[in-house]
Amino acid sequence: MADQKEKVLAKPKVGIYGFTGCAGDQLLIIHSEDHLLDLFNAVDIRSFVMASSKPIEQELDVALVEGSISTEEEKAHVKEIRSRAKVLVAIGNCAVSGGPQAMFAADGEFAQRLKQVYGETKFITDPVEATPIDAHITVDYYLPGCPISAPQTFALLSRLIHGASPDDYMHPVCHECKMNENRCFLVDKKFCLGSITAGGCGSACINVGLPCVGCWGPNRDGNFASVVKQLISYGIAYEDIMRRIRNYGGHKILQYIKDVKVR
Ligand code: SF4
Ligand code: SF4
Hints:
This protein is 38% helix and 14% strand. It is α/β, with parallel strands linked by helices and 263 residues long. The strands form 2 sheets. It has a 5-stranded parallel sheet with strand order 2-1-3-5-7, sandwiched between helices. The radius of gyration is 20 Å and the shape is globular. About 2% of the residues have low confidence. The site of one iron/sulfur cluster has 12 residues, from α9.
């Protein structure tokens, strides 16, 4: 009976971790005042590097992992977290795609760039080219964003806590832009990446008159070749288009642009 009571009252154990990035996703969670008390009531936060200096590193029901993997030490750490977590969620563009720090991914010049920036200084231990966390471990769910959005994050957590599978959000930014009844930048031959960018921001930039620069990372159903071709037809240089696409596309963008051959 006592066991049963304990089982009913047991809160899911959650750990929130940060690797290489700006920590904006952890900050978003801390700044979600409307949801924070509900979250702390519903789950047992075991580890949250930004909020507590006393982590309890044991088995976890859910691990939320932010940031790209950019050192050998981070590689080992993310694997160790995975080994303790029943469910692991990548949160934010850096964890999902590799982030801006991976914008030159696989160009063969990582070592040279590292030297250019840091010289011979060795204060970063064993740096490696930044990669998304799923280059090293299995990820169960993805929350894109730069940073993540509170509604998507708490909807996912709520579903996980109640034993349901979270929805996979498939829509690009364009979908939200249409819902918000904005005039499309492409109609005016302007440089907008909304159709190949993962949705969830509510078309925040377009709503205030700025084109999407793709900060939520690539939308997996995006037709990259077609969009590049279209933008070139507006007189925008191929190099500028690719630079912008790669800016937030991280390491993962390589799989989406491999067939883009328009020059
Ligand atoms: S303005 Fe940009 S995000 Fe909005 S519909 Fe056009 S291409 Fe898509
Ligand atoms: S750049 Fe694009 S994805 Fe990022 S917030 Fe603006 S509209 Fe959303």
